[in-house]
Amino acid sequence: MRDLRTQFPTVEGTVRAVDGVSFDVYPGETVCLVGESGSGKTVACESIARLVDPPGEVVDGEVRFDDRDLLACAERDLRAVRGDRIAYVFQDPQRSLDPVYTVGEQVTEAVGYHRDVDGAAARERAVDLLDRVGLPNPAARADEYPHQLSGGMKQRVAIATALAGDPDLLIADEPTTALDVTIQAQILDLFADLGDEEGLATLFVTHDLGVVAGIADRVVVMYAGRVMERGSVTRVFERPAHPYIRGLLDSLPGRGGERIGGEPPDPLDPPAGCRFHPRCPHAVGECRSGDGPPLHGVDGGGEAACVFHDGVRDSTVVEAGPEPRSERDPTHDADTSTCGADGGPR
Amino acid sequence: MNRPDSSADPGAAAREATAADSESSAADSGSTADGVDDADREPLVVVDGLEKHYPVRSGVLRRRTGTVRAVDGVSFAIERGEALGLIGESGSGKSTVAETLLHLQEPTGGTVRFDGRPVGDGGDGVDDLRRRTAMVFQDPSSSLDPRTTAGESAAEPLRVRGVARRRRRERVATLFERVGLTADHRDRYPHELSGGQKRRVGIARALALDPAFVVLDEPTAALDVSVQAEILDLLADLRDAFDLSMLFISHDVSVVRRACDRVAVLYAGEVVETGPTGAVLDDPAHPYTRALAAAVPTPDPRADRPRHSLSGAVPDPADPPDGCRFHTRCPEVIPPEDADLTSAEYGAVIDLRVDLADGEVGLDRLRTRVDGADADSLARALRAEYDLPDPDGDAGRALSAAVDEAVVGDDAAAVRRIREAFGSPCVRENPERGEGDRSSACHLPPE
Lengths: 346, 447
Ligand code: SF4
Ligand code: SF4
Hints:
The complex is a heterodimer. Chain A has helices at 41-48, 75-81, 103-114, 119-132, 138-141, 151-163, 181-198, 209-215, 233-238, 243-250, 315-319, 324-328; strands at residues 2-10, 13-21, 30-34, 57-62, 64-65, 68-69, 86-89, 169-173, 201-206, 218-223, 226-232, 296-297, 303-304. Chain A contains twelve helices and 13 strands. Chain A has an eight-stranded mixed β-sheet with strand order 7-8-9-3-10-11-13-12, sandwiched between helices. In chain A, strands 2-1-4 form a three-stranded antiparallel β-sheet, covered by helices on one side. In chain A, a hairpin with a 2-residue loop joins β5 (64-65) and β6 (68-69). Chain B starts with 9 loop residues before the first helix and ends in a 7-residue tail after the last strand.
């Protein structure tokens, strides 16, 4: 995905939900798109297969999938890609399930849509898929309606439907958010298996950093429509470069660090400069104007969009940055009174 | 205690009360315990053996054919100023506990005492409980009217009480300041507020009548982590300031860890473990609590994700398992005394028994997997499907016989045989939860 921009015109102005976002997903890997609500993470992944509801519109950028620009190709070609090569799983499984058909009928229909097989073979493949996603007693469950299933089972059925076309890329938007932790763990196991065994690439959207740590190979952190940081999951969690992700990590129970105050910006009127500056404990003058810092490489791999990573100053400068506490306490060694990330347990 | 309309400051009444309390307790500690009024010593909320059973009716005559045991003998107490967390998966009965506790639904058994007085049985305890209890719901959008400003929403309970307009405005101004909203927020409509601000309005409204007890149903569900942390901090502040007792209902273990002094773990309508939050969550005594705590993803990319997490879901409350209700999912279930089986192997046998009893084995599907449809290969396929053990002696023979019965479709006989041959305390008897500050209901010997 290159420089993607998706906007929603509203009566009060244009919401630039996704404002110049780029990232890659390689075959077989799991990339987690992390951010708070309003960060644009959902819109970004809906933009990939042009699923954004009007009046929302992808106004610029490129989504290359197998050397094809999905944003430029005809709706007909796109339809072939959508579902067949790229499949979606949503937070609410209801969105992919129709209440008036049995789950077997729905998965069978999805199979028939993608493959040229007769009814019996499609049905058999559907039951195989339901079995694959761990639905207990799939042959009998296939005759049940969605409302007869628990939330976890519905999500399994939605995943089976998504797998019907043997996709290469699965885009999962908060698929476990509404589930109990125990059921969430079961579904995450399933995603991990699908990645390992079927070589499926997954773009996983979530706000839960615990989930990210458990399943991601790489992480893309979004804030107010922009990418703030990208990198391998170990690097981002252990040496977060951007103050935003550091604050998010510090907000976690048990970390005991300083957390982020305030709330995300108004999407109609995002702040100038670095969009995180109103909540950033390190903000300096240059953070408050211009178009915001671009992504720069950071030690250990990946990139971060913060003025303190422009190659001139290194990351130790960020940590000794304008931190109010250390200013008030002159006896405090500036090098150790870093932002909370270093205070938390590693 | 002052009624809110007599004071524009929501804190004043509570602070006075707190001051009085601490004075009296200071005096008490100097005197002998005999002189202390019971109401001062009893926790604010005492729930004993709370039960909510619903009849299951079927057929044309709507005859009662069974019982849904949504809440089945739940006991706990909440001290003044204490926050208790009630955790468990969906279907565990958490919300029904709250509703029956508040008598929004009549309990079918057990007692509730509030501030030293029994609730229910025609007394005025219910009125007292309702007047001094507030609820904060999980989805603020559903409790805030989209056409009402935040200030009016928060003042609603005061308006219902007939508090004069000017008083209401003063009171809301104080409340808003207390929950971290500005005067400017008062005239906004819900759609003009962020998720966190809506929660704050809900909390302001809950505080309007100066409650002593606040019930919070998933108060931070669907909030971002940073906002969630702020709301929990706010609730902790308010609890301290007003000496509020709180009941947090949540399926989110991390919320309860952050916000509660004590926790009660609910499974299939029963409290299986209770104790101080840190002790229970960091060193769980009950296998269910252990599994629940382990299922919470840790934000450490190097940690191994727990594989083989708890399978299945909370059992149907209309047909809870015999013995320990958790035995059908328990990873630590006690194997039969006379068979040489691990908990996991015994668990496989239990899975088979449960599926046979529910008619969920799916022989047809197994048949499509094996080449020959003869009984032997089907039996092998069934064993493989459930990962069944092959113990020596009587247990092994009984299991083989049960598998043979299952393969020919005689599920009932197979279930009976497994029950007879594979007994265990976990299947025979529902463990009692002991008394005391920290208790757990499990047959396993404490570590
Ligand atoms: S650019 Fe400035 S405001 Fe933005 S994250 Fe970096 S230090 Fe903070
Ligand atoms: S009594 Fe048995 S089944 Fe129940 S929790 Fe304890 S070990 Fe597990």
